[in-house]
Write a structure and sequence with these properties.
Blueprint lengths: L1 H19 L2 E5 L10 E3 L5 E3 L4 E2 L4 E5 L3 E6 L3 E2 L7 E6 L4 E6 L12 E2 L1
């Protein structure tokens, strides 16, 4: 009974993590003119199959024969006082900070982050 309960909790925790991830898939039809070992993203840039790259918006992507798979790498603040604070995205470090609306030099406490 104990092992069954533990196994159920592990499965539930895994599903919870998967549901909170920020990923997407771009399905595409391969252009016959493209080399067989490459894919082309929405910006027209070609990438080698199964070789990851980072987008300017901090998504880690890779492609295979079915499409381009991308996941956010920046942890997003989720637990803070939105009436007194705002989140700011920093592209150069792929990170967020949370600061007071009235005093942007002062950071706000954050209780949870979503990745």
């Amino acid at each position: 009974m104990r092992n069954t309960l533990l196994g159920s909790l592990v499965v539930f925790a895994s599903l919870l993590v998967l549901c909170n991830t920020q990923c997407y898939v771009e399905l595409y039809d391969k252009n016959p003119e493209d080399p067989p070992d490459e894919c082309r993203d929405l910006d027209g840039v070609t990438h080698k199959l199964n070789m990851p790259w980072m987008t300017e918006n901090c998504y880690r992507c890779s492609c295979d024969e079915t499409g381009i798979h991308c996941c956010n790498t920046a942890a997003i603040p989720g637990g803070f006082d939105t009436t007194k604070c705002k989140k700011i995205f920093h592209k150069d470090t792929c990170s967020y900070s949370v600061v007071e609306l009235e005093n942007p030099d002062k950071e706000c406490p954050v209780s949870s982050w979503i990745l």
